[in-house]
Automatic annotation (TrEMBL):
The lineage of its organism: Bacteria, Pseudomonadati, Bacteroidota, Flavobacteriia, Flavobacteriales. Keywords: Aminoacyl-tRNA synthetase, ATP-binding, Cytoplasm, Ligase, Nucleotide-binding, Protein biosynthesis. It is found in: Cytoplasm. A motif ('HIGH' region) lies at residues 11-21. One of its GO terms (molecular function) is glutamate-tRNA ligase activity. ATP binds at K263. It holds the Pfam family tRNA-synt_1c. It is an enzyme of class 6 (ligase). It catalyses: tRNA(Glu) + L-glutamate + ATP = L-glutamyl-tRNA(Glu) + AMP + diphosphate. This is Glutamate--tRNA ligase. SUPFAM superfamilies: An anticodon-binding domain of class I aminoacyl-tRNA synthetases (SSF48163), Nucleotidylyl transferase (SSF52374).
Amino acid sequence: MTKTVRVRFAPSPTGPLHIGGVRTALFNYLFAKKHNGTFILRIEDTDQNRYVEGAEQYIIDALNWCGIPFDEGINKNEKFGPYRQSQRKHLYKAYAEELIASGKAYYAFDTAETLDFHRTEHEAKGKTFIYNWHNRLKLSNSLSLSAEEVKAKLEAGDDYVIRFKSPQDETLHLKDIIRGDIKIDTNILDDKVLFKSDGMPTYHLANIVDDHLMEITHVIRGEEWLPSLALHYQLYEAFGWEKPEFAHLPLILKPTGKGKLSKRDGDKLGFPVFPLQWTDPVTEEVSRGYKEDGYFPEAMINFLAFLGWNPGTEQEIFDLDDLIKAFELERVNKSGARFDPDKIKWFNHHYMQEQNDDELAKTFKKQHAELADIDVNYIALVVSKIKERATFVSDFWELSAYFFEAPSSYDEKATKKAFKDNTAELMTSVSAIINTIDNFSVETLQTEIKGWITANNIGFGQVMMPLRIALVGALQGPDVFDIMYLIGKAETIKRIETLVKTL
């Protein structure tokens, strides 16, 4: 790749960052890093009516938590700043007026009431109102009015918008890295508004101007922007600028495979759709986040990478460095990718095994008041024994409570299976053996107890099942000898004696 790659993630601060936005940011990040390029964050806040307090910082925090921080953007390497479009407002009108001067755009003075009338009239006839070549000369704009009339309206301060003049009877040939060649008949295109009556540019104009000024080489964005590609192509040509390469990512679909996964689907379907928890500043409604639900960022990134991309191999586990090496836009699919809540849990279980036991122990201790006085080093030893069965840290207590307190009851199904007429006698003998062991270690326990079972020709299940129930309260948990070693000699004997009394 000859040019230095520069890509941008350009969300609007209208609320929390949706998981689809994170996927878009991830693919931009991977592409940039693959080609030793720059990943830029730009905040597209031209629609001030939809601006939500705190959303911008949420976006930054989310990218940082995911481990895909931007290289250039707000308060960071501001080579092409500012990076909020609202702070670049002074730039856009001049570019819009440049298009008017070149005949590529025009002033439109139509009132909202007039446009609503035309829409309603068309709907009554079963048609769709499109403002373009076939009716623009019948409407109130600088193409249909005389120069004097236009001047008078501008001097009088009449409201206006600036529209792009879409060509007639042409065929556009567009290129997309993922979707290939696309042909568009310009007769079906409307004359999009580039500059609004409130003095702010629309997304289309600001987007193109900023991408050009920031020297963006590749525009990697969601499929929902594919209908805008024709206009954006034409704007680049109208300005005489070199176009970036475009790639439109497939939609992320609901778990059913039908329909786009929306911001509202998390509450409906019972899983997060945001990376971090979000509290609405107006309603104070709280939406769940993957971080707070106990997911590891590595799991989320690995999962999102496979929503629309395929490495071409059977490999599923990729750390970020592996993803960067393997990622190719040409291997991104055109069709939508189904969101599978169970699959991200599978990834989280995998990455659980790679977490540091000491760090997991600290998190576990914070979550449970019962552990307040327990040495975190002991908790870490327990975590090392049970985390292979866990998907989240929140699973730890159910899997390990018996390491911290004796069972208060015994599982009924397990006792029916394990307890025989001679169980009390066998457990008393095991307790006596343990009591004689001075070097209390896993190896010694195994040697002494297994040796006694073999020497007396006793079935292992007759001893080991009730012994496990005595220690755990159920037929579950890691190796029995590991449990005995961790809870200690005195506690082990005490639990066995409690079971014998119960029997």
